[in-house]
Amino acid sequence: MITKSLHKRESELANSKRQLEILSNSIFKSGDLPMFASKIAETNQFPLKARKLEILQINVGYMCNQVCEHCHVDAGPDRKEIMTKETMLQCLEVIKKTKSHTLDLTGGAPEMNPNFRWFVDEASKVGIKDFIVRSNLTIMKANKKFADLPEFFKSHNVHVVSSMPHWTRGKTDKQRGTGVFDQSIEALRDLNAIGYGMPDSNLRLDLVYNPSGAFLPGSQSSLEKDFKKTLLEDFNIHFHNLFAITNLPVSRFLDYLIASDNYEDYMYNLVEAYNPAAVENVMCTNTLSVSWDGYLYDCDFNQMLQLPVNSKAKHISEYNEELLFNRDIVISQHCYGCTAGAGSSCQGSVA
Amino acid sequence: MYQNYSTNDFRFISLLKFKQMQKTYYDPADLKKFGKISEWNEELGKKFFDYYGKVFEEGALTEREKSLIALAVAHTIQCPYCIDAYTGDGLQRGITKEEMMEALHVAAAIRGGASLVHGVQMMNKVNKLDM
Ligand code: SF4
Ligand code: SF4
Question: Ligand 2 in contact with A300 (CB < 6 A)?
Answer without folding.
Answer: no
